């Protein structure tokens, strides 16, 4: 039924044809009119929230006056609105979000009389009839001179002409405020509010030189505006970090996924902070158009120290009849000594390596979280073609008293023409309940749940790691 209604309205109210008379109290705002925004500042946070601050010059009369603020965000949070006007107090505020459209115009016309214009396809002659709109429920029901008709989508050219725009419909999202002004005259009004529909993310392009073990990193900020409003010539400030929200208690928190590993750094970045968050101001004012994605560069680092390696993590009692690929891992640090020297907002790192012809080729991507300066980053970029690991449960023996002895063997192979080192991880352990009783290579216990070996594997060769674990299960 919704499709029928929209089809009828497409015929009844064609864009650019419908003449509309203004209401007596307030003239409609043209969708193509210049923005009514003033001196605009937009602060965009992670997590779909932005702070808009708009300073407009108002010419107010003395006494109680109604003032409209068009061109606010269509996703404004009205409860967060703050308005400061010298020598005036706020009596009431309303947010008019019922926007002018063919369907809303027809729905508001229920009970009103409109003019239907029909065109004869053969002769081009037009006929006009006055019709009362009875209902708009999955279709338009009309009373035309005592006969009841349904406006059908039958392909015949029909236009609907409305006498006026209902006061409740706005061409653009508008905040209406009733003020008690103590004097007449022009003065600045500072409007601020929170809004959804404005977001940003960081994206990184990393070009790795595997001959010199150097990395060039470019950082891009991607702005996205789905708020329903264009923000014109705005000072724009981006805040990296997760701000608290009253809805946090009801949000679903996904479990940590395997991927990028980060060793937290302890260096203070040389950029401005706001509390516990880092600020990334855009160098110049910019227009953030509705339904637009905009990219701005914020990082360009050359010759960052980096290296590649391999990682393989085996689940507890994981055993495979076939060898499995190790992960390819790019390792670097964002410390000053390494050449990067900046706090990195969360985003996706896309890695490229030059081929034999010198052309950069994409080799994989992964996500980093908010990363303090001085951190070590291990970024998995894909599965290795030539480096494989085959984990095998050799034996399981019950020791009595609910304890078991498990013998594991890990066969690592390398088909590359140069030696590699594989970080081999046995997961699923319990620090308080697991003992490594035998191993042919010394392991490291980085956390309660895993044992880690750094295993060198020769070029075109293999290596074997064996270990025995005593556990409760």
What does this molecule look like?
The chain is elongated. It has helices at residues 2-12, 102-108, and strands at 39-45, 49-60, 63-70, 82-84, 88-96, 113-119, 126-136, 140-144, 147-151, 158-161, 174-181, 185-195, 198-209, 214-225, 231-240, 261-263, 273-274, 277-281, 286-288, 292-314, 324-333, 347-354, 360-368, 376-400, 403-414, 420-426, 435-439, 444-447, 450-457, 461-471. The chain folds into two domains: 1-25 and 35-196, no CATH class; 205-471, no CATH class. The longest helix has 11 residues, at 2-12. It has two helices and 30 strands.
Strand content: over 45%
Unreliable stretches:
1-32, 248-258
Structural class: mainly beta
Q: How many domains, in number, for the residues? A: 2
Radius of gyration, taken over Cα atoms and rounded to an integer in Å: 33 Å
Biggest sheet layout:
14 strands, mixed
Number of helices: 2
For the secondary structure, the number of strands is 30
Form type = elongated
- Would you tell me the overall average pLDDT? 84
Distance between the termini: 61 Å
Helix percent reads under 10%
């Amino acid at each position: 039924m919704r499709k029928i209604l929209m089809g009828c309205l497409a015929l009844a109210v064609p864009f650019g044809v419908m003449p509309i008379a203004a209401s007596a109290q307030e003239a409609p705002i043209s969708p193509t009119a210049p923005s009514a925004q003033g001196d605009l500042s937009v602060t965009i946070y992670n997590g779909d929230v932005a702070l808009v601050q708009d300073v407009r010059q108002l010419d107010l009369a003395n006494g109680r006056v109604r003032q409209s603020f068009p061109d606010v965000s269509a996703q404004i949070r009205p409860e967060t609105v703050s308005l400061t006007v010298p020598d005036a107090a706020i009596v009431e505020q309303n947010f008019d979000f019922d926007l002018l459209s063919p369907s809303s115009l027809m729905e508001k016309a229920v009970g009103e009389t409109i003019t239907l214009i029909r065109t004869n396809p053969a002769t081009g002659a037009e006929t006009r009839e006055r019709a009362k709109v009875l209902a708009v429920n999955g279709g338009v029901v009309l009373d035309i001179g005592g006969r009841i008709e349904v406006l059908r989508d039958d392909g015949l050219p029909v236009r609907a002409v409305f006498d006026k725009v209902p006061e409740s419909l706005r061409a653009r999202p508008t905040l209406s405020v009733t003020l008690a002004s103590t004097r007449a005259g022009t003065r600045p009004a500072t409007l601020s509010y929170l809004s959804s529909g404005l977001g940003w993310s960081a994206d990184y392009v990393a070009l790795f030189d595997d001959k010199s073990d150097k990395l060039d990193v470019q950082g891009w900020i991607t702005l996205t505006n789905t708020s329903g409003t264009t923000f014109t010539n705005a000072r724009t400030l981006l805040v990296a970090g997760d701000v608290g929200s009253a809805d946090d208690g009801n949000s679903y928190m996904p479990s940590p996924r395997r991927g990028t590993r980060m060793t937290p750094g302890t260096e203070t970045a040389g950029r401005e902070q706001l509390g516990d968050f880092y600020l990334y101001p855009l160098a110049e004012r910019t227009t953030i158009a509705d339904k637009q994605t905009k990219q701005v560069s914020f990082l360009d680092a050359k010759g960052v120290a980096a290296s590649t390696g391999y990682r393989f993590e085996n689940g507890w009692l994981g055993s495979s009849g076939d060898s499995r690929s190790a992960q390819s891992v790019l390792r670097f640090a964002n410390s000053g000594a390494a050449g990067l020297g900046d706090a990195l907002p969360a985003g996706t790192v896309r890695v490229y390596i030059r081929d034999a012809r010198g052309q950069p080729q994409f080799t994989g991507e992964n996500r980093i979280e908010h990363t303090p300066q001085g951190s070590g980053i291990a970024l998995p970029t894909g599965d290795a073609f030539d480096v494989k690991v085959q984990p095998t449960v050799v034996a399981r023996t019950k020791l009595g008293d609910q304890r078991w002895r498990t013998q594991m063997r890990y066969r690592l192979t390398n088909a590359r023409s140069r030696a590699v080192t594989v970080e081999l991880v046995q997961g699923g352990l319990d620090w308080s309940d697991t003992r490594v009783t035998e191993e042919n290579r010394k392991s490291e216990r980085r956390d309660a749940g895993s044992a880690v070996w750094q295993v060198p594997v020769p070029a075109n060769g293999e290596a074997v790691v064996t270990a025995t674990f005593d556990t409760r299960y």
